[in-house]
């Protein structure tokens, strides 16, 4: 589906511009792209020291499976993102966009906020099957790995950042099935149009997962 107001040519040009970048590309995905995924995007960007549109070690962006195109983050999401370390200017600049095939295909790693988003992303880009996780799933799997294990795997892949990330992603994927867990534990609760307390619960699930992703990325790209 083509987002309202955007042509196929514009989508191709956007994807081509991203593809020119040598930095690994991390894509966050939720439903409306105004709560969970932009919060994860802003938090990870802050953890990695990656201001929007700058050239750094990793490029982070987000999209929604049923995005409210061009809408800002909700006030509660903005407040919680800033409270947890995101840059206020980054948070306020966010505008929702639709998850389309070109965007999913261009990512090196996709973090879905829930299993339904993971399914949609993989349907759009089947080659991303082993590079798509819910963010809490990835954090749970990665927590079994030490920084030294991650760095050793990355070093064996060479010096190119995207190759290093691919090797470490494969290492994390190997952890699947190693420990039992409840499926719901891999989702971040959707707070949209719900109470501030629900937003707090959502952030409490999301922030530790972002921190674990940042740990893995720093060890990978060091």
Give a quick precis of the structure.
The chain has 222 residues and is α/β, with parallel strands linked by helices. It has helices spanning 8-19, 36-47, 75-83, 88-93, 101-106, 115-124, 135-142, 147-156, 161-173, 196-221; strands spanning 25-30, 59-64, 109-112, 132-134.
How much helix, percentage-wise, in residues? 40-55%
Figure out the total of helices: 10
Can you tell me the overall shape? globular
CATH class division: Alpha Beta
In terms of quaternary structure, what is this? single chain
Distance between the termini: 38 Å
What percentage of amino acids are in beta strands?
5-15%
Secondary structural class: alpha/beta
- What is the domain total for the residues? 1
Which strands sit side by side, in order, in the main sheet?
Answer: 2-1-3-4
Report on this structure.
The chain has 222 residues and is α/β, with parallel strands linked by helices. The protein has a single domain (8-221), classed as Response regulator (Rossmann fold, 3-Layer(aba) Sandwich), CATH 3.40.50. 50% of the residues lie in helices and 9% in strands. The chain has helices at residues 8-19, 36-47, 75-83, 88-93, 101-106, 115-124, 135-142, 147-156, 161-173, 196-221, and strands at 25-30, 59-64, 109-112, 132-134. A four-stranded parallel beta sheet has the order 2-1-3-4, with helices on both faces. Strand 3 (109-112), helix 6 (115-124) and strand 4 form a beta-alpha-beta unit. Helix 7 crosses helix 10 (196-221).
